[in-house]
Design goal:
Length: 234
């Protein structure tokens, strides 16, 4: 009898261990490659094509770094629904602009998103992805814009990671096709994931505000002017 009890106790511990392990958030990087369709303009093609972007992902959070003359870091926290943009400006230091959950909710209130899960499947970065057509409706003008995404169910990546871009979307987009107009041409900008790489060494501290970053409201007036912020208070 005691052996039976010990056996079931061991099974229970193993089940709990597996369950806890399965619930651990995904931690790693997702590499995206950008391409463009609908134009042969060499300037547009050179600017948008063949560039890669690395997203660091942990659970419902992501971080992306870019450099467009200045260092830009965007950190999105899907748990508390905030987006922080950190600007690293030579000669000035680091300053951040933070959108709160209230700010984001207010901005999203002007439009409505409709999701059409088509059932069509394609594989990207080793994951089976479902095609979803997102229709964004402007509530004031009734104008519509469509975005096509292919979403994957990546264990440990929560749906709340989409809170700032596609709130309510189920799954993580590994391909995004966005139509826009550039120089009177209808252009489709495409971001496609080329690899999803788990990284157990990635720490939660990577998704925190840098300790040396200051609020943009504390930036010198000449820097605010340069950034187009004037003397507005954040």
């Amino acid at each position: 009898m005691k052996k039976t009890i010990r056996f079931f106790a061991l099974v229970a511990v193993m089940f709990l261990s597996i369950n806890v392990f399965a619930q651990k958030p995904f931690a790693g990087s997702i590499i995206f490659e950008t391409s463009v369709e609908g134009t042969v303009d060499p300037n547009i093609v050179a600017q948008l094509s063949e560039s890669t972007t690395e997203y660091l992902v942990m659970g419902n959070n992501y971080r992306v770094n870019s450099n467009q003359g200045i260092d830009v870091i965007v950190i999105a926290n899907g748990t508390n629904k905030t987006v922080s943009t950190i600007l690293g400006i030579p000669g000035y230091g680091k300053y951040f602009i933070q959108q709160t959950a209230e700010d984001i909710e207010k901005a999203q209130a002007t439009s409505e998103m409709k999701f059409n899960y088509t059932g069509e499947k394609k594989e990207y970065a080793g994951y089976q992805c479902e095609k979803v057509v997102i229709t964004v409706v402007d509530k004031e003008t009734d104008e519509e814009q469509s975005v096509v995404v292919y979403v994957a169910q990546i264990p440990g990546v929560g749906d709340d990671i989409n809170f700032a871009t596609y709130p309510g979307l189920k799954g993580y987009p590994l391909r995004t096709e966005t139509k826009t107009e550039i120089n009177d041409e209808d252009v489709t900008i495409i971001q496609t994931a080329t690899s999803v790489v788990p990284n157990k060494k990635l720490k939660a501290t990577a998704f925190l505000m840098p300790s040396d970053a200051q609020p943009i409201s504390e930036a010198p007036e000449d820097l605010k002017q340069m950034l187009g912020l004037g003397s507005e208070k954040e």
